[in-house]
Structures are given as C-alpha cells and as structure tokens.
Write a structure and sequence with these properties.
transmembrane transporter activity, cell membrane, DctM
C-alpha cells in the first residue's frame, strides 16, 4: 500500500510540474509496474498494453470526427449557422442569447469539441450580442456555457474516449446523449429568459425580417441533413460510429467544396489540427491503460470492489461520492484527464453496484462538462475570456445561474435514468 501511495505522489508531482497528463500517467504506471514486477516484465506489459490500446479500431472515429469539425469550421459553415439562428430568434428579448444556444446545439452535433465550439461562438456570437447592447457578463457567459453542449451532444469526443476506456458501445452513448443535451439546452434558454425579463442585460434585437431569416436558413439545411445522416446511420444500425464518422467527413468535404469556402491552405490546416488532437487523445488512452494495468496488478481495484460489496453505504451514497469527486477534479483538470484518471476505479465500482454503463457514461460526461465552468480552471471560461477580452471574474459571476441549472439537470439524470436510456433502448440492433 505504501508503494501505491508513493506512485500517486509521483503522479501528483509530475502533474504539478505541468507534464501532460498522458505522460504523467504513463510514467507513473510504468514505475509502479517496475517496482511491482521488475523492469523486464514491466517493459513487456508496457509494449503489449500500448499496442493493444492504441490499435483499437474504434479509435478511428476520433480523427474522423475531429477532421469533420475542422473542415466545417475552416469552411465557414458553422459561422453561417450561428447567423441563421440569430435571424429567427434575435428580435425577442434575450433572443440573440437564445439563438446562440441554438447554434451551440448545431455546433455540438458537428464539432464534438467544447473548446472549439466556445471559440467559434466567442468569435461570431459574442460581437453580435455586444452590438445589440447585451452586457459583457451575460454575452460571455452564454458563449462559455453553450460550448459545453459539445461534451454531451453526439458526436462528442469525450463520449468516444469514455467508450474506449470502458469498452462501452459508443453508438449507444451517442444516442443516449441526445435527450440530456437537448434538456441542457432547454435549461439554458429558460435561464436566459429569466435573466432577460428580470434585468436589463439582454435587450431586444432587430425587428424580425422573414425574408432575411428564410435566406439565412439555407445555410442550416445542409448541416441538418448531415447531422441526420451521421446520427441516423448509428441509430438505425446502418453504420458503426467509425463508419458514420467517415460519412460525416465525406459530407463535410462535399459541403465546403460546393460552397467554395475552403482553400487548400485551410484544408491542410484542418488535417494538421485533426492529427495533433488525435495524437494527444490516443496518447491519453494508451497511457491510461498502462496506469490501469498497474492498478490491476496492485489489486487496488479488487480491494475497492470488495469494500463496495461489504460496506453499509447505499448505492446512492457511493454514487454521490463519485459525483462529488468528479466535480472536484473538474475544478482543476480537463475532461479527458478526469476520465483517464477516474475511470479505472470509478467504472468497476459503478458496475459492481449494477448501474447501466451507458447511463453511467452520460452521468460522468455531464459531470465533467460542469467542470468546464468551475474555477479555478474552467477551461471554457478561459477560452471565452481570451477570445472576448472579458475578465475571468466577470464571466464566472455571469455563469452562476447557468451553473445552478446544470446541477439541476445532473440531478434529473441521476434520479430519472429513463431520460438517458429511452432512446438507446429503441435502437435497431
């Protein structure tokens, strides 16, 4: 046990010196294996584990979904979708903020990355809200919380990583994320409505112009068709997530080429961005597997499961402890780091308590999504602040009512599992 705490201390020290989480976990896991088994067996485990975890076919979905997002963003398609939503809703009080939420749902279904979605909204929606006299605090808060939808709404990269780490069906995870994602978006709209009618932070926009709205909608139609094709192929059992991702890349490329909005330079930047993000994610998955192997050899996981089986605590109390731990981790770490660190222990515990792995995945994903908004890290807030120039303290204050709404949605998902499991249960086998 002393060795285990020493390895945890090594991991903490490496992270404190800002070593990437993948390398910190890989080094700590390898050192633990070397102490536990000896250097030569540790190298053998390292070789096998790294190959097995990084050669998984399902990982093909990650670079494809990321490339789809890069192509649509570089091709200016996502920005046009934002303006289309604003054309329909911008005339009501708080309408521009609500339109930003609507555009965030569309971006989430196409981008899969919360930081990319937040950056796009900060560049497009924030200036529009400021031009219509929205307060800095509300405008920056809306683009920050809107970006978090990409964590739950498919095709979320976080859901893919969770599926790989826990060997859970990624197709079912994608479908399970639809209703929680829409429920979160509805909650954001309700909060905006309340703020708009109780404060002067969200005035009315320009008068409604049906012609302009219809004209702007031309840019949403192809995106809607692409979303239906990608998610519908998974839901109908026609394609696996990897195959659906390939379909999405092909559709995105055709779309930007037809609209002539993607230059060769932008295309090469999209490919480079997808490669960089993929390498980082695959490294996290592989190094997490090394650390998980160390935990297996130390029998820490086995001991934790025995504790769960013999403790007097209820299932709900143990789940509450897991949720609180994830929320605390979200205050200091990004989503992928939380998954790679927590799932080797939290997932077996949840399975021992007879929770559904798909439901647990959505709950975990929703919990780490909230971490994107909590200080001191609050990654989405930092992205929004850097893009908009609004001070961090002002954005964090603006986020507070949205944060409380996020906790309400999380509580609903915990208490009513059918919200998450209904759609996956209807999937064609």
């Amino acid at each position: 046990m002393m060795t285990f705490f020493a390895i945890l201390a090594l991991l903490a020290v490496l992270m404190a010196f800002r070593m990437p989480i993948a390398f910190a976990m890989g080094i700590s896991g390898f050192v633990g294996l070397a102490v536990q088994l000896g250097p030569r067996p540790a190298f053998a485990v390292l070789e096998r584990t790294f190959f097995d975890s990084s050669a998984s076919f399902i990982l093909v979905a990650i670079p494809l979904f990321i490339l789809m997002a890069e192509l649509l963003t570089s091709g200016d398609v996502t920005r046009r979708a934002i303006f289309a939503c604003q054309a329909w809703l911008g005339h009501v009080k708080g309408g521009l903020a609500m339109a930003t939420v609507g555009a965030s749902v569309i971006l989430a279904a196409l981008v899969g990355s919360s930081t990319a979605s937040t950056a796009a909204m900060s560049a497009s929606a924030f200036p529009e809200m400021r031009n219509h006299n929205y307060s800095q605090r509300l405008a920056a808060a809306v683009v920050s919380v809107g970006g978090t939808l990409a964590v739950v709404v498919p095709p979320s990269i976080v859901l893919v990583v969770y599926g790989v780490l826990t060997e859970t069906s990624i197709g079912k995870l994608f479908i399970a994320g639809i209703i929680p994602g829409l429920l979160t978006a509805l909650g954001l709209v309700v909060v905006i409505k309340v703020i708009a009618h109780t404060t002067d932070q969200a005035p009315k926009g320009d008068p409604f112009d049906l012609g302009r709205a219809v004209k702007a909608s031309r840019h949403i139609l192809p995106l809607t068709v692409l979303m239906v094709l990608v998610i519908g192929a998974i839901y109908g059992g026609i394609a696996s997530p990897s195959e659906a991702a390939a379909l999405g890349v092909m559709g995105s490329l055709i779309l930007v080429l037809l609209q002539r909005t993607l230059s060769f330079l932008e295309f090469s930047r999209s490919v480079s961005g997808a490669i960089r993000a993929t390498v980082m994610i695959v490294a996290i998955v592989a190094c997490s597997a090394i650390f998980s192997n160390y935990l297996a050899f130390t029998r820490i996981t086995h001991g934790l499961l025995e504790f769960v089986a013999t403790t007097d605590m209820s299932r709900g109390q143990i789940m509450a402890i897991i949720i609180v731990a994830l929320l605390v981790m979200g205050m200091f770490m990004d989503q992928l780091a939380i998954l790679s660190l927590a799932m080797p222990l939290a997932f077996p515990t949840a399975m021992a308590l007879d929770y559904d792995p798909v439901w647990f995945g959505i709950v975990v994903t929703k919990t780490v999504e909230i971490g994107l908004l909590t200080p001191p890290l609050g990654l989405n807030v930092y992205v929004a602040s850097a893009q908009t120039g609004v001070p961090l303290s002002k954005i964090f204050r603006g986020i507070l009512p949205f944060f409380l709404m996020e906790l309400v949605v999380l509580l609903l998902l915990l208490l009513v599992p059918e919200i998450t499991l209904w759609l996956p249960g209807m999937m064609l086998k």
